[in-house]
Design goal:
5-stranded mixed β-sheet; Sulfite Oxidase, Chain A, domain 2; globular; binds ligand MTE; 8-stranded mixed β-sheet
């Protein structure tokens, strides 16, 4: 992200052959716990990238209905060109500075307008939800993009378990606050901790996921270990990393980039090639990892998910609600 004052930053049915045999899923919880604990190998991944030493292999099935058919960026691209200001503002800083961050054990507090409040272990948050691989394009508001094979669970399925009340109109998320491990939090680049939010119908949309891995392996620290949000029709900054709190609210919650520069970053942050950022065009994007001549491609409305999500914003002026 870039801010003026401190410049810190097809669909197809799943073929039976692609589904992991049922027996493999029977003891998912134990497997998941093992896989999320550092360094333990689980079951196979779909892509042939090498596993880095600390990443755990996850068990998942590929969701072809919600996956792009484009080839993903390399593991190297995805894990070395990041925005995670808690570890520094340069693209290489998160990979360089996040080694001391400990994503296990991890718990998430669920609060606000819901019946089942409490603090839950990550394993508990994920239990009963088979992991899926979804190949999405991450379109950053800075007008670059990458294709990423995430592994995660549908956000809406997780949210329903905590039984939101009729007053729950929004969902707010918060990143962990650990300045001892996240050196960027010692500097007032943003208001810490990083916060984000979605309207409840957006959060319940089947495209929204909570990711725990990429390329079939647990999330590297720089990509938001151990749990992050992915809303592929929105700019990447909505994808809050290292989530420790989920709160159901009646009012629209504050969001980090909107607090920082409200005229530049709105609450909705839907990818929209016809609404420019005040300082640059959003009509095109640069594909990270491509050659100079084929790297600039047109940006698609809602990042290509117009058919799926346009109805969420029916009647809204998208120039006003950017
Ligand atoms: N979450 C936190 N907590 N802190 C951040 O700085 N950056 C956001 C988002 N989530 C950010 C964050 C931005 S601007 C983008 S584009 C994506 O993470 C980048 O995700 P990636 O590094 O996995 O590509």
């Amino acid at each position: 992200m870039l801010i003026r004052k401190s410049r810190p930053g097809d669909s197809a049915n799943i073929r039976p052959s692609e589904i992991t045999p049922e027996s493999v899923y029977l003891d998912r919880r134990r497997l998941l716990q093992a896989a999320l604990a550092a360094g333990v190998a689980g079951l196979g991944g779909a892509w042939s990238e090498p596993a880095p030493a600390q990443a755990a292999l996850l068990e998942f099935k590929r969701n072809t209905k919600y996956s792009l058919s484009e080839a993903p960026n390399s593991y190297e691209d995805i894990t070395s060109y990041n925005n995670f200001y808690e570890f520094g503002v340069d693209k290489g800083a998160p990979a360089a500075n996040s080694g001391r961050f400990k994503p296990q054990p991890w718990s998430v507090t669920v609060s606000g307008e819901c019946e089942n409040k409490g603090t839950f272990t990550l394993e508990d948050v994920l239990k009963d939800h088979p992991l899926e691989e979804r190949v999405y394009r991450l379109r950053c508001v800075e007008a670059w993009s990458m294709i990423i094979p995430w592994v995660g669970v549908p956000l809406g399925e997780v949210l329903k378990r905590y039984k939101p009340t009729s007053k729950a109109k929004y969902v707010a998320f918060k990143t962990v606050m650990r300045p001892s491990e996240m050196t960027g939090q010692r500097y007032p680049v943003l208001e810490w901790p990083y916060v984000e939010g979605l309207r409840i119908d957006e959060a319940m949309h089947p495209l929204a996921i909570l990711a725990v891995g990429l390329y079939g392996k647990s999330l590297p620290n720089q990509n938001g270990a151990p749990l992050r949000l992915i809303t592929p029709w929105k700019y990447g900054f909505k994808g809050i990393k290292s989530i420790v709190e989920i709160r159901y609210t009646e009012r629209q919650p504050p969001t980090s980039w909107n607090i920082s520069a409200p005229h530049e970053y709105g609450f909705f942050a839907n990818v929209n090639p016809s609404v420019d950022h005040p300082r640059w065009s959003q009509a095109r994007e640069r594909r990270i990892g491509r050659g100079l001549f084929d790297s600039r491609v047109p940006t698609l409305m809602f990042n290509g998910y117009e058919q799926e999500v346009a109805s969420l914003y029916k009647g809204m002026d998208l120039k006003k609600f950017y």
